[in-house]
Specification:
Layout: H1 2-7, E1 13-16, H2 20-26, H3 41-48, E2 53-56, H4 59-65, E3 68-71, H5 91-103, E4 107-112, H6 120-132, E5 143-148, H7 158-163, E6 168-172, H8 175-185, E7 194-197, H9 199-230, H10 234-242, H11 263-276, H12 280-307, E8 316-320, H13 335-345, E9 349-353, H14 359-366, E10 384-387, H15 391-395, E11 400-403, H16 408-411, H17 415-421, E12 427-430, E13 446-449
Parallel strand pairs: 1-2, 3-4, 4-5, 6-7, 8-9, 8-11, 9-10, 11-12, 12-13
Antiparallel strand pairs: 5-6
Bound molecules: uridine-5'-diphosphate-xylopyranose (UDX).
Length: 453
Amino acid sequence: MAVLAHNCSNIRVTVVDINEKQISRWNDPDLSKLPVYEPGLAEIISKTRFKNLYFSSNVEQSIKEADIIFISVNTPTKMHGIGSGQASDLRWVESSARLVSKYARGYTIVVEKSTVPVRTGAKVEAILTSTSQNIDNETLHKSFDVLSNPEFLAEGTAIEDLQTPDRVLIGGKSEKAINALSEIYKNWVPEEKIIKTNLWSSELSKLSANAFLAQRVSSINAISGICEVTGADINEVANSIGKDNRIGTKFLRPGPGFGGSCFKKDILNLVYLCEHYGLYEIANYWKQVVEINNYQQERVFRIVVNKLFGTVANKKITILGFAFKANTNDTRESPSINICKKLIEEGAHLSINDPKVTKNKIINDLGIDPIEKNCTNYDQLLGSWSFEPDIYKALHSSDAVLILCDWEIYYELKWSDIIKGMRKPSWIFDTRNVVSSAAIEGLNINLWRLGQG
Ligand code: UDX
């Protein structure tokens, strides 16, 4: 919405949330306190906030005034009841639709921005129209059109992705509504990049795009395992196959597995959808993408333990990177969570570093309290972890370092200095191809790189 406001100075954008605390953080004069870290976002907000971009918790009033409403609530995987573990929890989409239905005035275009299962549009439409028919006279004049306009941005590059998208997808029945939304995007997106489809194609395209992307990561990660046992090099293989135009070079980087709020959730949702329609073979096909992703995390954990003589008990391991990827403070489904938990269970003492993830977030994700920084009495403890914002301190007296994110600063580490403070034999486990052989040449340090035979 910040990018939309930035490109359309004649449109007033109001972002509303029932969470007042969150809204006040978006209104904080100190832009470093915005709830989300995203390169370039603070700059855009500083240019648009209080001009044509507003953050408010007055949901009712904002709905009344709006011509177009984007429903952008989360749709996490259901953890209870029917479809538990796979289906999307649509309670917030539904409650938003009910609010819109109640408070909207006149003709309103309702846009599904949240990623939703195919045919959610029908449910939204049913809620909107049912309530509008049975309240007071004024509300009888309401009418709605529902559109699907999924978001394809990736975290860390969100502003760039929004500013120059590969495509903008608008699905719906009403040509008038589709054109109205398309006119807004045309302020900065070339017309040929705006794709118009029916509602169901648009909803399914979002799930399919994420499933394809996740499948590519699982595919390259599966090949990385073969490389390690055969002597092939995953980077050489990725480069060779990526040169085929039909395959392309992007999304072929091996790693500890995909994380983030979307891939796993959307694939599981697709699996649920397939099973609902009796398409069990197709469901199993997509399930395997998630299974390979779990396997990749388990594989990294086991390699670390095996290389450290089969035990990590009472060993200090430095974890570089806790976010699900670089350039974000988001840790949702981060492979680091599983890998760290397993290492702690095995008795390791982790010193965790990440440039943007806070200690509190890690406490929340691991569900274990950290030990005091100066604790030296490791023997008394089972596995443990501590948070260390200073990378060099984090690495001091470590037996091993496990790189799980490719933050820029990790490429610049001076291994010749670091090695002096590490316990011998010292190990670097690099899952993101951050450390080159040249960087450690002549140093007494063992390097294991994911996908390198
Ligand atoms: C993804 C989609 O890219 C985006 O279109 C959609 O709107 C939301 O989900 P995001 O989760 O922000 O975006 O990040 P993305 O860059 O796609 O990475 C997802 C995960 O895959 C990360 O854990 C990343 O490290 C991993 N990944 C990605 C790889 O391991 N290798 C790659 O080559 C690419």
